């Protein structure tokens, strides 16, 4: 829009201001010059255009007029005050006229509307009305006609695939522009020779490779219009239709040739490309390492195996750093699936380590196994055992551990080899006959890392029993008869048994005997030995696959010694005759565990039968020789005797005695009276001396008599 000041004659004319005082409604007008603006607006025929009065605030009263092309008197168009609007009858020639808030809108604009529009308005300002004017020059443009009036051509010679696409024709003028509908130019061509890509990308000579269980994506691109139709062939057999062929977790059976066939269905033309896809898969599991002694037992054969897979795994042995530094190259030659290395035993230290390194295209991180050559500690051990029923004797030699394992072999005492050499354990089975007793056998052990061989020896012998020649026991006691096998280099299991003096085998469960048995011993206990029935010769036997041994032992059952004889040395009543004091002594020797005192009542007259003996005191210690017995009736005459006892029997009773009367006891009373008299006399003398000492003047002669000297 263009705005500018108009000439003074446009707003000073009295015809412009004649209407405003009448429309002001009695409100005061602001004194001074009225505001005036002028600008230009462009409209298009048939469309709408808005003409603004120009000031910011909408006018309270507005009057629009129009002068065609700026010549002639103005024509009224519309007048308005707030919501009240009036349109002049002849305004329809301009188009559809609308007035809103002082803005004049012409819809469906006509060419006759080109000219000058004048806006006269009263605008509120600080409680008063200010007069304002705006002149607008409206220019009406006419839009161009439809395409087709003039001719334009585009020639593409020669056409190629790069010309494919949409084409448009555009016509423009000052008002607007018109664009034709788009036209698509389609160039038909192809297909070109396909290009095959493989993911993951792993090219190799003659094709591509992939690891088993990988996801392989085959993509084919053959430019063509219309787009190519793709068909995938595996070893000549169709497997997929589409540009991309995804093989999920490819298997070894899916290796081979893959052909991409591209077809242009419009031109009926075809092209193709072929690749070779190799599927690598590792051997099952992991490589295994082992070490064995060579035939001469001087060297060690290190073996590494990892069979299967495609291509075969590549294996190579490497030794410890110290050994490899002695070689010009740190690794041995590589081989496939199996690798063997001969390591001299004499040149190998105990504890040397070796590793087998494996590589395979399908195992990027590689694989390995290892072994350490070492000699087991100690030496071989030999043992012998008999089978059930003693039909065979089995000799066993063991020396476990070590890499490679120790080689063992049995030989007889003369050095003749028996059986084949075996590893770690050697077993020799011999038939039992009379010739095995006393024979010696040797087990030899060899290891490549051990310069000197080792061996163990054993001799098959008949069981050797150890028993006591004689066992003595007191009657009533328990007799223990022991029998055991002496240790030998090859002790075979033997069946052991005891026989009583009547050559009857002693079996478990008999009340007279207790039988206890171990691996190489058997004990017989004779319970509550009786004289003379349990005495005699007992026999212990041991039977093995080599032979039978027997040893005898004599059991002597002695009579239990009787207790010693007892004699009463003192038996006397006390003064009250309700107790007696008894003393005794023993005569001779004998087994003694205690004493028993017995008593009975003696009847009067003596010709009547006395009462039976009863125990007055029992369980008396064997060291005691006296006892005070109470609970007696003074009116009854008693008789006493003493017996010595042991845990087996009682000795002969002592002589029978009756208690003696207590002796006369006057002497103690007289002695007591004399002592009391002496004490009284002494006290009186002391009092007299004290009195004389205090009354010296009164009793001078007594004082001098007692104290002068």
Task: Write up what this structure looks like.
The protein is mainly β and 709 residues long. 7% of the residues lie in helices and 46% in strands. It has six helices and 51 strands. The protein has a seven-stranded mixed β-sheet, with no helix packed on it. A hairpin with a 7-residue loop joins strand 36 and strand 37 (454-459). It is elongated, with a radius of gyration of 73 Å. The N and C termini lie far apart (177 Å). Residues 562-664 form the Fibronectin type-III domain. The chain crosses the membrane at residues 666-689. This is Titin-like protein. Pfam families: fn3, I-set, Ig_3. It comes from Willisornis vidua.
Main attributes of the structure:
709 residues; mainly beta; 6-stranded mixed β-sheet; 51 strands; 46% strand; disordered N terminus
Categorize the overall geometry.
elongated
Number of strand elements: 51
Structural class: mainly beta
The spatial strand order of the largest sheet comes to: 1-2-10-9-4-5-6
Gyration radius over CA: 73 Å
Q: What amount of the residues lies in strands? A: over 45%
Regarding quaternary structure, what we see is single chain
Number of helices: 6
Query: Helix coverage percent of residues?
Result: under 10%
Report the sheet with the most strands, covering strand number, pairing sense and barrel closure: 7 strands, mixed
Distance between the termini: 177 Å
| Residue windows where pLDDT falls under 50 for at least 5 positions | 1-20
Mean pLDDT over the full residue set: 84
């Amino acid at each position: 829009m263009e705005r500018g000041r108009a000439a003074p004659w446009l707003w000073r004319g009295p015809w412009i201001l004649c209407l405003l005082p009448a429309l002001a409604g009695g409100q005061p007008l602001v004194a001074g010059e009225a505001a005036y603006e002028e600008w230009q607006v462009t409209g298009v025929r048939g469309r709408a255009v808005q003409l603004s009065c120009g000031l910011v605030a909408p006018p309270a009263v507005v009057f629009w007029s129009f002068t065609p092309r700026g010549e002639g008197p103005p024509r009224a168009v519309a007048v308005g005050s707030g919501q009240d609007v009036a349109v002049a009858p002849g305004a329809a020639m301009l188009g559809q006229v609308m007035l809103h808030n002082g803005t004049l809108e012409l819809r469906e604009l006509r060419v006759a509307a080109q000219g000058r529009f004048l806006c006269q308005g009263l605008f509120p300002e600080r409680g008063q009305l200010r007069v304002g004017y705006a002149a607008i020059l409206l220019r009406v443009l006419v839009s161009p006609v439809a395409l087709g009036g003039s001719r334009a051509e585009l020639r593409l010679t020669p056409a190629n695939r790069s010309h494919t696409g949409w084409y448009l024709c555009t016509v423009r003028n000052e008002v607007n522009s018109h664009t034709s509908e788009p036209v698509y130019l389609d160039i038909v061509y192809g297909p070109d020779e396909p290009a095959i890509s493989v993911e993951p990308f792993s090219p190799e000579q003659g094709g591509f490779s992939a690891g088993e269980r990988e996801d392989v994506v085959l993509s084919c691109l053959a430019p063509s219009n219309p787009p190519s139709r793709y068909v995938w062939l595996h070893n000549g057999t169709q497997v997929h239709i589409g540009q991309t062929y995804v093989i999920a977790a490819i298997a070894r059976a899916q290796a081979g040739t893959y052909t991409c066939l591209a077809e242009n269905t419009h031109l009926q033309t075809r092209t193709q490309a072929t690749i070779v896809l190799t599927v690598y898969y590792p051997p099952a599991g992991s490589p295994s390492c082992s070490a064995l002694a060579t035939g001469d037992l001087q060297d060690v054969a290190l073996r590494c195996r990892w069979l299967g897979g495609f291509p075969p795994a590549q294996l190579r042995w490497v030794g410890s750093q110290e050994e490899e530094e002695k070689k010009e190259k740190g690794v041995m030659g590589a081989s496939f699936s199996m690798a063997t290395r001969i390591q001299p035993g004499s040149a190998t230290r105990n504890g040397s380590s070796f590793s087998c390194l494996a590589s395979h295209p399908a195992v990027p991180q590689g694989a390995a196994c290892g072994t350490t050559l070492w000699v087991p500690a100690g030496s071989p051990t030999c043992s012998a055992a008999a089978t059930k029923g003693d039909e065979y004797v089995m000799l066993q030699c063991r020396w476990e551990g070590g890499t490679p394992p120790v080689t063992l072999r049995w030989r007889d005492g003369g050095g003749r080899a028996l059986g084949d050499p075996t590893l770690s354990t050697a077993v020799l089975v011999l038939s039992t006959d009379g010739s095995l007793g006393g024979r010696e056998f040797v087990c030899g052990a060899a290891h490549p890392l051990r310069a000197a061989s080792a061996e163990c020896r054993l001799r098959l012998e008949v069981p050797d029993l150890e028993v006591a020649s004689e066992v003595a026991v007191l009657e009533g006691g328990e007799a223990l008869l022991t029998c055991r096998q002496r240790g030998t280099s090859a002790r075979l299991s033997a069946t052991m048994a005891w026989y009583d003096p009547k050559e009857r085998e002693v079996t478990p469960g008999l009340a007279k005997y207790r039988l206890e048995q171990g691996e190489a011993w058997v004990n017989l206990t004779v319970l509550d030995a009786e004289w003379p029935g349990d005495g005699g010769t007992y026999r212990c036997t041991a039977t093995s696959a080599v032979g039978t041994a027997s040893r005898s032992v004599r059991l002597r059952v002695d009579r239990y010694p009787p207790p010693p004889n007892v004699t009463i040395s003192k038996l006397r009543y006390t003064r009250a005759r309700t107790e007696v004091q008894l003393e005794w002594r023993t005569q001779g020797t004998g087994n003694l565990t205690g004493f028993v005192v017995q008593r009975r009542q003696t009847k009067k007259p003596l010709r009547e039968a006395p009462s039976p003996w009863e125990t007055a005191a029992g369980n008396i210690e064997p060291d005691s020789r006296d006892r005070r017995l109470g609970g007696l009736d003074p009116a009854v005459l008693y008789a006493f005797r003493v017996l010595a006892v042991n845990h087996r029997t009682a000795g002969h009773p002592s002589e029978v005695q009756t208690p003696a009367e207590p002796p006369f006891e006057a002497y103690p009373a007289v002695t007591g009276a004399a002592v009391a008299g002496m004490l009284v006399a002494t006290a009186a003398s002391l009092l007299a001396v004290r009195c004389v000492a205090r009354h010296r003047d009164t009793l001078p002669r007594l004082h001098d008599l007692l104290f002068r000297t």
